[in-house]
Amino acid sequence: MRNTRTYGSQRGxxxxxxxxxxxxxMPFIAGIPLLGKQLDIKQKAYDASxxxxxxRTVWRSDGTSNRKSEAEITLEARDRTLGHxxxxxxxxxxxxxxxxxxxxxxxxxxxxRLMDYRDSNAPVDMIHRDQASPVAVGYALVPGIAYGExxxxxxxxxxxxDSLNLNPGAFAHSSVSVSLRxxxxxxxxRRVMLGSREASQRExxxxxQTATGAVLSDxxxxxxxxxxxxxxxxVTTNELIGNLELPARIIGLQASGKGxxxxxxxxxxxxPDLRPSSTSLPSAYITxx
Length: 289
Hints:
Elements: H1 2-58, H2 70-80, H3 92-98, E1 124-131, H4 141-147, H5 152-158, E2 171-180, H6 183-189, E3 191-193, E4 196-198, E5 207-216, H7 225-234, H8 238-244, H9 246-252, H10 280-284
Antiparallel strand pairs: 1-2, 2-5, 3-4
C-alpha cells in the first residue's frame, strides 16, 4: 500500500512538472515556425544580393542599350527573389504597372505580414555602388590592352585596333536589407499564465536581415552574335591587313581568273575574315556516338 501511494505521488509530481515546463516553453515552441520563416527570408536576402551584383556586371557592357539601371535591377531582385515562389518571370515594364509579388508564407499566426510596413519606407532596401580597384595589375601591357591606357593606346591606333574597353572598376557591390516585424521578441515578452496571457507594452526595433555581395565588374558580354563578331573584329587587324593588300588586289584584277596567271593567286586572300564564329569552337569538341 505504501509503494502504491509513493508511485502515485511521483506520477502526479511528474505531470505537474511537465505542465509547468510546457507553459514555460510554449513561446519557444510557438516561435519555431516563425524562426524558420525568418531564416527563409535571410537566405532569400542572400539570393537578392547575388542577383543584383550579377545583373549589374552582365548588363553593363556598352553603357547604353545593353545596360540595366539600378532601379530596374532592384525591382527585378525584389520580385524574383523575395516575391511569390511560384510567380513567373515578368518584364520590368509589367512589374512597374502590376507591382511586385509577395511570399504568402511569410506571415505570422494572425496572417499579418512579417515584413515591416509600419514606416513609410519600403521593407526592402537595396544599395548599389562600385568599389575601387583593390590592386593594380601590370604596368603597360595589361592596362593598355584592357582599358586602352598608356603608350599602348597610340600603338593600337596605328594598328587600327581597339582595346578591350573593360571597366576599370574592380567590384560591383550590392547590399540588401529586409526589415521584419519583431514578432519573436514580442512573443518572448508575453507572460503566459494558467488561463490567461498578458502582453508586454515594450516597443522593439524591427529585425533587419542584411546581405552584401560583390563581384568583379571588369567584364563584357555580347547581346547577340553580330555584337560579338563586331567586338572581335575591333580587336584584330582586319582593316590593317585589308589596307596592306589593297595594291595587290588592283594588280590581281589583271589576271584572267581566280588562281590563274597573272597574279590570280592573290585573289584567294581577298576579304580576310579573322572573326571566328561562337559555334565553331564548341563543335570541335562535340562528337556523335
